[in-house]
Write a structure and sequence with these properties.
Strand order of the largest sheet: 3-2-1-7-6-4-5
Order of helices and strands: HHHEHHHHEHEHHEHEHEHEH
Shape: globular
Number of helices: 14
Largest sheet: 7 strands, parallel
Structural class: alpha/beta
Number of domains: 2
Distance between the termini: 80 Å
Number of strands: 7
């Protein structure tokens, strides 16, 4: 058998890594591990400092120099402070109360609109009246998906008018930026008062469902579905014996609200569920007011029911 005098590489053999290569690989792994550890340490340091600045530091600044509270937690201090300001609290309707209002309106054939304000609606209303457009655009990069192309001052004004006219308005309970903390400056800008109005949690759509109120609301009623997922939602509701009075889809952003409302008015219905982003506020308020029926800003609960993440 003839001999082959080629190199191992020519024979397709793998050359064992040299000590230098192994050392380089080990050094690389060590460097990566050290980098990950450093990032984790920096994150934890930033978290601790941020938590202090957002709470304990405020207590430090407000306490007189001759007093400390070493046995009280920040949570205890805040809870005590909150109890002293209950006269300033804005009451929110509970799911059962909103359900009762909806059932009463349908029974008496009275209009009722339930709209909800999230960061998208509040940022839209804030354009050039609370925030410059550039800031709204930076903080609301999702607004295009929600149906508003910033700047749009016409939609801003329509949204404010809809909120002023709506019967029950959901506002955020969370004090995260652009949620509850944006409500007061926006409302002040439009002269909206917290008094003599009906408010609820902006997640009232989910709360009605989890509290077991949604199915009794929809049973034996003619339900109109509005939004891009209306057909899929109709299939889910139909399996529970809900009578679907009609479907209006698609909704192409907030500027499509007037067209959608005009189409929806052609149906005979008792209650409309509107899942259409920011346009839902406009459609819900106007549809209830013009038809004398009930309309609810149904939001992403439609997605949850379709996916099976929520159940009637």
């Amino acid at each position: 058998m003839p001999k082959f005098n080629g190199t191992p590489a020519e024979l397709g053999a793998t050359t064992p890594p040299s000590d230098t290569a192994q050392q380089a690989e080990a050094e690389g792994n060590k460097t990566e591990s050290n980098l990950q550890a450093s990032c984790l340490e920096d994150y934890e340091k930033g978290y601790r400092e941020g938590k202090y600045a957002g709470g304990e530091e405020l207590v430090d600044q407000l306490l007189p120099p001759n007093m400390i509270f070493p046995e009280l937690s920040l949570k205890q201090i805040i809870a005590t402070g909150l109890s002293m300001h209950t006269e300033h609290a804005i009451p929110l309707l509970l799911p059962e109360q909103v359900s009762d209002a909806i059932l009463h309106a349908m029974e008496k054939k009275q209009p009722l609109s339930v709209v909800r304000l999230g960061d998208g609606e509040l940022l839209t209303m804030a354009q050039e009246i609370v925030m410059p457009v550039d800031q709204v655009r930076r903080e609301g990069k999702f607004l295009e998906y929600a149906g508003v192309s910033v700047p749009d001052l016409e939609i801003r004004n329509q949204l404010a008018e809809a909120v002023i006219r709506a019967d029950i308005v959901g506002i955020p309970r969370t004090r995260m930026p652009n949620y509850q903390l944006l409500v007061s400056p926006v409302f002040k800008a439009y002269g909206l008062s917290f008094r003599e109005r009906q408010w609820t949690d902006s997640l009232i759509n989910y709360s009605l469902c989890t509290a077991g109120c949604l199915l009794p609301i929809l049973q034996n009623r003619r339900v109109l579905l509005i939004g891009n997922l209306a057909e899929q939602l109709a299939a889910v509701l139909a399996r529970h014996g809900i009578h679907i009075a009609g479907i209006v889809a698609p909704v192409n952003g907030a500027r499509d609200a007037a067209r959608v409302t005009a189409l929806a008015r052609q149906y005979d219905f008792d209650i409309a569920l509107v899942s259409a982003g920011i346009a839902a506020v406009l459609i819900t308020e106007e549809l209830a007011r013009l038809t004398g029926n009930v309309a609810i800003d149904f939001g992403h609960l439609a997605n949850a029911l379709i996916k099976g993440d929520a159940s009637l």
